[in-house]
């Protein structure tokens, strides 16, 4: 599916937020026909729009969104890994050619070639050792990319956060920091959404430097998490496993407590669902207006989940 077609579906998805059937049809089309690439996701913003439905009250929509985002993320990461392997292979070939003219270099080339078979060549070849604490300044990296103070400061801060304890070369870290900032910029242009841009930066940066989540920066620099995912995902998804478990326990506890105080519902066949036409409907009544006004009846279809109310 071409970018133009995806953009049309994204617009339709945005305009059909309240129509679950249409949203499901569009999501299923995107799942079947979109071949995700970083370029396509950036150009169409389809990932951002799809991700908005992750917390939909419709369980089928929420489940499908999670499935789509997960599959797209896996596809992007596989493409990146494949590209890195190709680059590593070409680098090894180049080292082999040079070794024929330089005896001293032959040992290093042979070691690189020998490591290619076990899948560890990428990490071994990309190791960068520094005698001082790593930062943009100490690595001699120029983070002035756009000559825009705010954006360049964000790139430098992200670089300094990601490079800590990393063995990846400076150009690799700089590329990731630049890509993350670019995703922030495309999601919230600081010219028109300065507050949102800064807030997104604070969330991402605080997660990266968090002492309670030391593995996050390694997942980002190793390519396990793409810049697009880091910027567009729910911040809770960046949390460490221990914190996610605690949040889930709190959520379940709150849900249990809430269920203890829910209004008792009755199921009847007196009402017909306007959506699926079934007559299995639960309802309850509340006095939402003044005492001399009739009660408001809140209905929920037990078959399709459709909700409505009347007085």
Uncertain stretches: 102-125
Largest sheet: 4 strands, antiparallel
Strand order of the largest sheet: 1-2-3-4
Strand-and-helix sequence, N→C? HHHHHHHHHHHHHEEEE
Strand % is 5-15%
Tell me the distance between the termini. 47 Å
InterPro entries: TF_IIS-typ, TFIIS/CRSP70_N_sub, TFIIS/LEDGF_dom_sf, TFIIS_cen_dom, TFIIS_cen_dom_sf, TFIIS_N, TFSII, Znf_TFIIS
Keywords: DNA-binding, Elongation factor, Metal-binding, Nucleus, Protein biosynthesis, Transcription, Transcription regulation, Zinc, Zinc-finger
Domain TFIIS N-terminal: 1-79
Biased composition (Basic residues): 124-135
Task: Label this structure with key terms.
311 residues, alpha+beta, four-stranded antiparallel beta sheet, elongated
Short description:
With 311 residues, the protein is α+β, with helices and mostly antiparallel strands. Helices cover 58% and strands 6% of the residues.
Explain the layout of strands and helices.
Elements: H1 3-15, H2 20-33, H3 38-44, H4 46-51, H5 59-99, H6 103-115, H7 121-125, H8 149-163, H9 170-187, H10 194-209, H11 216-221, H12 227-232, H13 241-260, E1 266-268, E2 281-286, E3 296-301, E4 307-310
Helix pairs in contact: 1-2, 2-5, 5-6, 8-9, 8-10
Organism: Maudiozyma humilis
Protein name: Transcription elongation factor
Keywords: DNA-binding, Elongation factor, Metal-binding, Nucleus, Protein biosynthesis, Transcription, Transcription regulation, Zinc, Zinc-finger
């Amino acid at each position: 599916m071409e970018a133009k077609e995806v953009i049309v579906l994204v617009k339709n998805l945005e305009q059909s937020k309240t129509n679950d059937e249409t949203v499901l049809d569009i999501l299923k089309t995107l799942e079947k026909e979109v071949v995700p690439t970083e370029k396509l996701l950036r150009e169409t913003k389809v990932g951002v729009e799809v991700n908005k439905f992750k917390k939909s009250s419709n369980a089928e929509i929420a489940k499908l969104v999670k499935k789509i985002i997960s599959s797209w993320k896996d596809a992007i990461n596989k493409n990146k890994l494949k590209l890195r392997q190709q680059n590593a292979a070409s680098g090894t070939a180049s080292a082999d050619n040079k070794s024929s003219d330089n005896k001293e270099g032959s040992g290093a080339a042979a070691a690189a070639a020998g490591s290619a078979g076990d899948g560890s060549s990428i990490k071994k070849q990309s190791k960068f050792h520094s005698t001082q604490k790593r930062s943009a300044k100490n690595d001699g990296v120029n983070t002035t990319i756009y000559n825009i103070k705010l954006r360049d400061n964000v790139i430098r801060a992200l670089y300094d956060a990601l490079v800590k304890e990393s063995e990846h070369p400076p150009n690799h870290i700089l590329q990731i920091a630049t890509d993350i900032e670019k995703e922030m910029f495309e999601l919230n242009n600081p010219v028109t959404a300065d507050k949102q841009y800064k807030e997104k930066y604070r969330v991402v940066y605080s997660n990266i430097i968090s002492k309670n989540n030391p593995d996050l920066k390694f997942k980002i620099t190793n390519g396990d998490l793409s810049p697009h995912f880091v910027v567009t995902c729910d911040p809770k998804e960046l949390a460490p496993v221990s914190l996610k478990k605690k949040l889930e326990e709190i959520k379940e506890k709150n849900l249990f407590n809430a269920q203890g105080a829910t209004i008792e519902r009755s199921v009847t066949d007196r009402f017909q669902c306007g959506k699926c036409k079934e007559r299995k409907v639960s309802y309850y009544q509340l006095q939402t207006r003044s005492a001399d006004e009739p009660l408001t009846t809140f209905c929920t279809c037990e078959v399709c989940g459709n909700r409505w109310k009347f007085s």
